[in-house]
Design a protein that fits this description.
Number of helices: 3
Strand content: 25-35%
Number of domains: 2
CATH class of the largest domain: Alpha Beta
Structural class: alpha+beta
Number of strands: 4
CATH superfamily of the largest domain: Ribosomal protein S6/Translation elongation factor EF1B
CATH architecture of the largest domain: 2-Layer Sandwich
Shape: elongated
Distance between the termini: 102 Å
Radius of gyration: 37 Å
Strand order of the largest sheet: 1-2-4-3
CATH topology of the largest domain: Alpha-Beta Plaits
Length: about 170
């Protein structure tokens, strides 16, 4: 090998050109391979997209609900179920219901019917939270109008809970 003993600066112009050409060819070949690999990945993703689109178009569209929102609300008689569940869930979660007042307002042409529940209770925070979560999860038309949780001065582990809930009804 004649290049081993000759320093790089003393190589002939022909050797420098051959080395530069070889480097350009290697870079071009690597770029072409990378481009080919990326193109293959793009084709694969386009095929997957087309398959998913076909699967999505094969799924039937959900039925459009044409019912009026007010028609999906429960009847006013459902208030008895709510009051029963208030007491039942209170026992389940260790909540002591002190008082409960129920007020019913009939529906008019411009407003929905309402059943107001004003509840005073005593419970630890976790129990009150679980109690309210269970009630709200059970009845979708039940909402909290106001909620106050205060420390009980005579019992440090329990709080006084005052909650005003509204059950929207259709009649």
């Amino acid at each position: 090998m004649p290049f081993r003993h000759i320093p790089f600066q003393r190589w002939s112009l022909r050797t420098h050109c051959l080395l530069a050409g070889l480097l350009v060819a290697v870079v071009c070949l690597g770029g072409w391979q990378w481009l080919h690999k990326e193109h293959a990945a793009l084709l694969e993703l386009e095929n997957e997209h087309a398959n998913l689109k076909a699967q999505l178009s094969a799924v039937p569209a959900p039925a459009v609900a044409t019912a009026n929102f007010a028609q999906t609300l429960p009847a006013a008689a459902r208030a008895d179920d709510v009051s029963r569940d208030v007491a039942q869930f209170a026992n389940t979660f260790g909540v002591r219901v002190v008082s409960m007042a129920i007020d019913t307002q009939a529906a008019t042409t411009t407003e929905l019917g309402r059943v107001n529940f004003n509840i005073s209770a005593q419970a630890d925070y976790k129990g009150a939270k679980a109690w309210l979560a269970e009630l709200l999860g059970r009845y979708s038309s039940l909402g909290i109008q106001s909620l106050a949780i205060r420390a009980n001065p005579s019992d440090t582990t329990r709080q006084d809970v005052r909650v005003a809930m509204v059950l929207y009804v259709k009649d």
